[in-house]
Amino acid sequence: MTVQRFGVSIRKELLEDLDELVKKRAFPNRSKAISYLIEKFKVEQSWAEDAVVTGAILLVYDHHKRDVVDQSIHIQHAYQPLILALQHIHVTHDACLETIAVKGRASEIRELADKLIGMKGVEYGELMMSKVVE
Ligand code: NI
Ligand 1 mean position to 77 CA, how many Å? Predict the structure, then answer.
């Protein structure tokens, strides 16, 4: 990995925003914060362009409610080629936390995430978008 230096001229307010980001997110310096923002932009672009991307789907549900476990397994089998790994954690007696690592076409991952997050019995769900990994 080659690192290059360059000069940047930006509005004073934007520089203050950058420094606030560095502080809030505990970046070691401005360079790391700028690199993070560029990577984030690239991730958003690759998802918008329907590239092959990676990500994770997070689900929180009460396993007693309805047939949420059966539904989840049924949906995951239908989208099996997208699923890299599944972690199911019994957080409490009732609550389960599932994280599903995925890789595939962005639109298919969104479709899978919408189906899982939309299941009756899911208390919270989130799709975390990550980058293209080749
Ligand atoms: Ni559980």
Answer: 18
What does the pLDDT look like over 34-93, one tens digit per residue?
A: 999 999 999 999 999 999 999 999 999 998 887 999 999 999 999 999 999 999 999 999
Residue 24 neighbours by CB distance under 10 Å? 9
**Short-list 74, 120, 79, 126, CA closest to 99:** 126
In the block, tokens 């929180």 appear at 60
How many Å apart are CA 63 and CA 46, to the nearest integer? Answer: 34
- Tell me how far apart the alpha carbons of residues 19 and 41 are, in angstroms, rounded to a whole number: 19
- Ion ligand 1 — residues with CB < 5 Å: 63, 90, 96
3-state secondary structure 17-45: HHHHHHHHCCCCCHHHHHHHHHHHHHHHH
Ligand 1 center to 74 CA (angstroms): 16
Kindly provide the residue ranges of all beta strands, DSSP E only, lying in the chain, ordered along the sequence: 52-62, 83-90, 95-105, 122-129
